[in-house]
Write a structure and sequence with these properties.
A: 156 residues, mainly alpha, B: 202 residues, alpha+beta, 3 helices, 11 strands
Chain lengths: 156, 202
């Protein structure tokens, strides 16, 4: 009786059906701007995903990353998936994180932060030499890293 | 500090009562903080904020000019599996939990994540993270800046701390970027240098 606004899911369904019907009726191909949108948003997506992961909501972040992989995997998506496991640290999560970081590093131009996170995970797994190697690689790629002082302290 | 985030949300209702419940911390006198978990010696007088009903025993907040302008928050012995602030179990998001195996970089992420969850802030930048001795223990110092979504005022912070016997001991300095951060930063550093972890608490 008091429902004056349709729920979001209902709106999405109705608008989608209306758009399909309009396209079918007119026979025209409508420009949806998706390619242009993806081109503009792509440089920002890593930052947005990193911010999302810092909200401490494993389920929502996993859902978001898995949704984005519908467009295809890239180095950043593999990396962010690894970050979810690294930060959660449930049983087996550190090994899971490593496997996602290695997938990221196999891609073209993976983010430098993969080396940082891989290094931290290796240190926590007791693989100190490998961890330091990964962290050195990170510092080579990001000479202005804000945590350079802390990382170099780990090398002592 | 996280008391401030709550206060921004209810400040209009509290304006008439904000002067009650504070107590004076005298200058140049050692004082136990956060339920006796640490002892510090300020060189100037501070105001101890009243304890909130949901405030953990290991947390205590001081301010010099008002909690919306500058705060020093003491965390004396955050145990494994506990957060820096209590949220209702029904809250949409939960604050991250401290883990004794955290590296300093992960403690920095833990602090940042707490800020983001509590304030909804989408702007948080770690300016630097470096090793530092705190209360006689090898620890860290993190400098950062952020913006609260509610008032869009740029703020700066400094966290110094260390893990001892599986618990986190930390001091968190938080102030507006304009004037107040610089005004009491040196005093925060002096208080941090004076910090000692209580033997019984550790």
């Amino acid at each position: 009786m008091f429902a004056t606004h349709p729920a979001p899911a209902e709106r999405m369904t109705d608008l989608s059906a209306a758009a399909d019907a309009m396209a079918k009726k007119s026979g025209r191909k409508y420009e949806d701007g998706r390619d242009r949108y993806l081109e503009v948003i792509r440089p920002w997506r890593p930052q947005f995903l990193a911010d999302q992961i810092k909200l401490n909501d494993f389920g929502a972040s996993m859902f978001l990353i898995d949704s984005l992989t519908g467009e295809g995997w890239d180095g950043d998506l593999f990396f962010q998936k690894g970050e979810l496991f690294r930060i959660r640290t449930a049983a087996g999560d550190l090994d899971q994180a490593l496997s996602w970081y290695d997938k990221a590093l196999a891609q073209t131009s993976p983010p430098a932060d993969v080396w940082r996170s891989k290094g931290m995970v290796l240190l926590k797994l007791g693989k100190k030499d490998e961890g330091k190697t990964a962290l050195r690689k990170y510092l080579d790629l990001r000479p202005d890293a804000p945590d350079r002082g802390m990382i170099e302290f780990n090398f002592q | 500090m996280f008391r401030k985030l709550m206060s921004v949300m209810i400040v209009a209702a509290m304006l008439g009562a904000c002067a009650t419940g504070y107590s004076l911390i005298a200058a140049a006198t050692p004082v136990k903080v956060a339920d006796g978990g640490m002892t510090v010696t300020p060189s100037v007088a501070w105001n101890k904020a009243p304890r909130g009903y949901d405030q953990p025993r290991y947390e205590e907040v001081w301010t010099a000019d008002g909690i919306l302008l500058n705060t020093v928050t003491f965390y004396a012995g955050v145990p494994e599996g506990k957060a820096l602030i209590r949220l209702r179990k029904s809250a949409e998001r939960q604050a991250p939990l401290f883990k004794a195996a955290m590296l300093p970089q992960e403690i920095a992420e833990f602090v940042e994540s707490t800020y983001r969850v509590l304030s909804g802030s989408t702007v948080f930048n770690v300016e630097s993270l470096k090793p530092s001795v705190f209360a006689g223990e090898q620890g860290f110092q993190m400098d950062f800046n952020y913006v609260l979504q509610s008032d869009e005022l740029k703020r700066r912070g400094r966290a110094v701390g260390a893990i001892k016997n599986g618990k986190l001991y930390m001091m968190l300095y938080d102030a507006t970027a304009t004037h107040y951060f610089e005004a009491t930063a040196a005093e925060f550093d002096r208080i941090a240098k004076s910090a000692q972890i209580s033997v019984a608490a550790s």
